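USER: Fancy drafting a protein?

ASSISTANT:
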Amino acid sequence: MPRTNLFLKVEVEHEPEERPERIAAEMCRQLMKLYGVRSAELSNFAVAEE
C-alpha cells in the first residue's frame, strides 16, 4: 500500500492561557484516531503577531 507524507499548515485562534503544544497534541491524537494516521507530530510552531 502506498504511503504519502502530507504537510499541513494550520492556523488556530486560542485563549492566551492555552498552550500551542497542547492544542497540537490533541489535533495529532484526533487525526490518528479518526483517520488511521500512522504518525502525527508537531515539528514547529510560530506565534503570529497581530
About this structure: The helical segments are 20-35. The CA atoms of residues 14 and 46 lie 13 Å apart.
